[in-house]
Write a structure and sequence with these properties.
Layout (H helix, E strand, L loop, with lengths): L5 E2 L3 E3 L5 E3 L7 E2 L10 E4 L2 E4 L4 E2 L1 E6 L13 E6 L13 H4 L9 E2 L2 H10 L4 E4 L8 H13 L3 E6 L5 H8 L4 E5 L5 H8 L4 H13 L3 E8 L7 H14 L6 E5 L14 H13 L5 E4 L4 H4 L1 E2 L6 E6 L2 E5 L30 E3 L5
Parallel strand pairs: 9-11, 11-12, 12-13, 13-14, 14-15, 15-16
Antiparallel strand pairs: 1-6, 2-3, 3-4, 5-6, 7-10, 8-9, 8-20, 17-18, 18-19
Helix pairs in contact: 2-3, 7-8
Length: 359
């Protein structure tokens, strides 16, 4: 098993003796023994160490649609894991027990990159997902695992807030096959006040992924009542996505549930998600979905040309799959954006915990 105090990349020494972490725009400047805002990257002498390398908050096999990715081998299973900590400070975090954890002893499951890749293949998983907390902060562990996965023919998925500097971003996504990026809102005020971060670096990540990589990109926005769900903001976001990324990047509007430091905010009504979906589609986005709610129409992939239902989902269950083996609409021949097998997988709504302690 690898030592969890693994040498990290992306740092430099400052003239005043402090060490600056260059992984994300927080630019944490550390004295000896100090940890960054993410809590998992720490200065130890004249090096940066990643304290969570080889250690996880748990391993599970999920449906790929839960990431959510609707255009990346629908119906397939994905081997999912995360670590602890986060480089954002979202007051509405839905995984706060993991992302806000400072208890390294809570990381009970251990596994080398090679063991994860082998387990994924043994369980018949199409891909491995770096998820639950943001893989940006355990980039070295994720990148090594991605290499091990690719050596065995297993693909890789990143579920991330996209808050990353340019060079690490290029290194990281060179090893990723698909990503779902959280675009948490479309105002700097929201990002600054509710996440402790900034909007522009996330937009930079989205543009980079869409224009300069072959990563299959999908986007999720958690709609929080009275905070990022106005017609004006949804319109501005849709127009930007259409202009900068194009019409084919799938967009998921997900329902907020009261959690962490925003328990006084009500859950997002279905009507809000339906309204957001209509606004985005009215501005030209072809694949817009609703999440965290039961809404078959909002789960379904429609042909953007003839509007025929092509992949009908009920939560994470695929009830109908009508794509041709080439990924086209069988009615009008339109190519559907994404990566598809000739037939949909049948993993369905399962969630299977996997024990890998000490592997």
């Amino acid at each position: 098993m690898e030592d969890s105090n693994y040498p990290g990349r992306y740092w430099h020494l400052l003239e005043d003796g402090r060490m600056q972490c260059d992984l994300c725009p927080r630019d944490c400047r550390l004295h000896e023994g100090q940890r960054g805002a993410c809590f998992v990257r720490m200065r130890q002498g004249q090096q940066m160490i990643l304290t969570t390398y080889g250690r996880s908050s748990g391993f599970c096999i999920d449906p790929i649609e839960k990431k959510p990715l609707n255009h990346f081998y629908p119906g397939s299973s994905v081997f999912s894991f995360g670590t602890a900590g986060c480089n954002l400070a979202c007051k509405f975090c839905q995984n706060w027990d993991i992302s806000k954890s400072r208890d390294m002893h809570s990381l009970m499951d251990q596994a080398s990159p090679e063991a994860i890749a082998q387990a994924a293949r043994q369980h018949g998983c199409k891909s491995v997902a770096f998820t639950y907390n943001d893989p940006v902060i355990f980039a070295e562990y994720a990148m090594d695992t991605a290499d091990a996965c690719h050596a065995l023919g297993v693909q890789t998925v990143a579920v991330t807030a996209g808050y990353m500097h340019d060079q690490p971003r290029r290194d990281f996504y060179a090893k990723i096959d698909a990503a779902n990026v959280d675009l948490k809102a479309f105002t700097e005020d929201f990002y600054f006040k509710l996440t402790g971060a900034h909007l522009q670096p996330v937009l930079d990540t989205l543009v980079y992924l869409a224009r300069e990589t072959k990563v299959l990109l999908e986007i999720t926005t958690l709609l929080i009542p009275e905070h990022n769900d106005s017609d004006a903001e949804l319109t501005a976001m849709s127009q930007w996505l259409m202009k900068e990324l194009g019409p084919d990047v799938p967009l998921h509007f997900s329902a907020f549930h009261p959690d962490y430091k925003m328990r006084d905010i009500p859950a997002t009504p279905l009507a809000t998600l339906v309204r957001a979906r209509k606004i985005a589609m009215a501005h030209g986005l072809r694949y817009v979905y609703t999440g965290n709610v039961h809404n078959v129409e909002g789960d379904t992939t429609f042909c953007p040309s003839c509007q025929a239902p092509l992949i009908v989902r009920d939560w994470y269950q695929i009830n109908q799959y009508r794509l041709t083996p080439e990924g086209h609409c069988p009615d009008c021949g339109t190519a559907i954006a994404g990566r598809f097998d000739a037939k949909a997988g049948h993993f369905g709504r399962q969630r299977i915990a996997v024990a890998m302690a000490g592997v």
